[in-house]
Amino acid sequence: MAEKAEKAADMQLQNGAYDVAVIGGGPGGYVCAIRCAQFGKKTVLVEKRELGGTCLNRGCIPTKALLHTAELFEEMRLHGNALGIQCNGLSIDYAATSKRKNEIVKKLRNGVAGLVSARKITLVGEEAVLTGKNTFTAGGREYRAERIILATGSEPAAIPVLGADKKGVVNSDQVLEMEKLPESCVIIGGGVIGIEFASLMSAFEKKVTVIEMLPRILNEMDEDISATAAKLMQKKGVEIHTGAKLLEIKDGLVCVYEENGIQKEAAGEIVIMAVGRRPVLKALNLQAAGVAAQRFVEVDEKMQTNVPGIYAIGDITGKLQLAHVASAQGLVAAANACGGNKKMQYNIVPACIYTNPEIASVGMTEAQVKAAGIPYKTGSFAAAGNGRSMIMNCPDGFVKILTHRESGEILGAHMIAPRATDMIGEIAVAMKAEATIEEIADTIHAHPTVSEMIMEAAHDTEGLCCHKLR
User: Fold this and answer.
1) DSSP label at 316?
2) Alpha carbon distance 160, 165 (integer Å)
3) Whole-angstrom Cα distance, residue 388 to residue 386?
C-alpha cells in the first residue's frame, strides 16, 4: 500500500505538482528552497538566469573580488616601498583581475548548484509566470504547488534624465562586465553602490566624480561615518558633489548638474548610474494570483503576502536590500510555509560597505537615538590608536558604540576601520543576546587585533579608556 502511494506521489511530481515552489534562485530563494527540502518538502526552484542571483553573479561577490585586488594594488602603490617591497613600475592587468573575479563567481555558483542538487530539489531554468494561487507556468509547462515563495530580486534602477540612454552610460551590471577600466568616470549616486565603485576606481588612480542628490554621501549611515568617508574619499582624489541634481547628460558624456542653485558640468569616459535598484515583478503576473503590490510586494512579519500560502522574500519586499536579509527572510518563509511560526525582525541587521577602510554598522544611528528621545552614551576609539591598524597602514577611522545611559543596553555601533565588516558581527551577537556594554568592556580581546577597538570604545563609554586622552 505504501509503495503504491509513493508511486502515485512520484507520478504527481512528474506532472508538475510540488509541496513548495520557490521562484527565484538568489541568496533568498535558493536558501529558502534548501530549507524547505530539509523539512522534507518536495520542492521546485525556478530561476531564469544563474543560480545565486544578483549577489553572487552581478553584485556582492564580483564587486568584492574586484575591490580586494584594488585594496592590494593601492596598498603596494602607497606603502610598498616602506614595507620593503620594491614596487617601482607597478601596474595592473585589469583583464586578469576580471578573469579571476569570474572564476570565483563560477566556483561559488557551482557550489550552490551542488547544494540544490544534493537536496533533490527540482531546478527549472526558465522564467515563471503565475497563473493562479497555486499554479504557474515555466518554459511552456504548468506547475502546481501547495505553497509558493516569490524571490525574483531586483535590477539596477534608472532615472528619467535626458541623455541617460547615450553610449557610455552604464549601470552596475555593465561595470562588472568590463575588462578594461576607463581613465575617468562620473558616478551618479553616492549610496553604497556608487561609493564602492568610487573606491574601486580611485584605488587604480582613475579620475572619479560623484554626484549625489541628497545632502551627504551614504545618507543612511551614521553622520560621523558619512562625514569621515567623504573626507577619506576626497583625500584619495575623489571629487564629491552633494545636494546636486543631475539635469542632463550631453554629448561627450558631459553631466550637467545643479548644485547650490548653480549649474555645473562634469565629464568622464563613462557615466555610472548608481541610483539604487528596483524590484523585478513585471513578468510574474501577480494579478493572476491576487497578490497585492504597489512598488513592492506587501508582506507581513511572517513573509506572507495577502494571499494565504504565497510568500515573498528578498528585494521585492522593499525592506532592506541586503543579501543576508534575503537569506534570513527565506528561512522565515520556509519555516512558515512548512507549518512553522517564525517572524522576521529587522532591528539587528548589520550593513557593510567594502571601501578602504571598510564601513559597517548595526542598530540605531546617533540621529535616530536622539530623535527617539532615548537617554544615551557614546564610546569611541580611533584607528590611529590601534596597533594592528597602524601595522596595516590604515590609521584613519574609528569605532563608535551607542548605549542606553541607564541600562547599558547596546543601541547601535558604527565603524569605519580595517576589517570593520568582520568586526560588526561581534556587536550584532551582543545585541541579539541582550548583552550590556559592560560585558563587552569586560571581555578580553586578543592583542594586537583591530577588534580591540570595540573593547576600547566600550571602556570609553565610562570614560575609562586607557589608550585615549579625553
Assistant:
1) G
2) 10
3) 6
Strands 254-259 and 244-250 turn out to be antiparallel
Percent of the chain with pLDDT over 90: 95
324, 404, 447, 459: the active-site residue: 447
Query: Cis bond leading into 279, ω under 30°?
Result: no
Dihedral over alpha carbons 178, 179, 185, 189 (to 10 degrees): 30
**Which parts of 16-93 fold into alpha helices (H)?**
29-38, 53-58, 60-83
CA distance 21 to 396: 48
Do 271 and 285 lie in a common domain?
no
How confident is the model over 222-234, as pLDDT tens digits?
999 999 999 999 9
Mode of pairing for the β-strands spanning 169-170 and 270-273: parallel
CA nearest 152: which of 178, 126, 176, 173?
126
φ/ψ of 10, rounded to 5, equals -60, -40
310 and 291 Cβ atoms separated by less than 8 Å: yes
Name the packing angle between helices 192-203 and 60-83 (round to 10°): 40
Structural domain includes residue 71? no
Together in a domain, 109 and 50: yes
Do the Cβ atoms of 13 and 6 come closer than 8 Å? no
In this predicted model, what pLDDT tens digit does every residue of 122-146 receive, in sequence order?
999 999 999 999 999 999 999 999 9
- Domain assignment present for residue 245? The answer is yes
Residue 162 lies inside a defined structural domain of this protein? no
- Those residues with Cβ within 8 angstroms of residue 88's Cβ, 6 or more apart along the chain or in another chain: none
Does any domain span residue 344?
Answer: no
CB environment 196-232: b (16+ within 10 A), e (fewer): bbbbbbbbbebbbbbbbbeebbbeebbebbbebbbeb
E strand map for 151-288: 154-156, 169-170, 184-188, 207-211, 239-241, 244-250, 254-259, 262-267, 270-273, 277-279
- Please give the Cα distance from 239 to 182 (Å, whole number): 16
Ramachandran quadrant class, 252 (left: phi over 0; alpha: psi -120 to 50; beta: rest): left
Quick one: residue 314, left, alpha or beta (phi over 0 = left, psi -120 to 50 = alpha)?
Answer: left
Give me the number of domains the chain comprises.
3
Q: What is the pLDDT of residues 245-281, one digit of tens each?
A: 999 999 999 999 999 999 999 999 999 999 999 999 9
Active site residue 447: yes
pLDDT in tens, 174-185: 999 999 999 999
Domain that holds residue 370: 357-460
Question: Whole-angstrom Cα distance, residue 169 to residue 24?
Answer: 28
Residue type (1 letter), 220: E
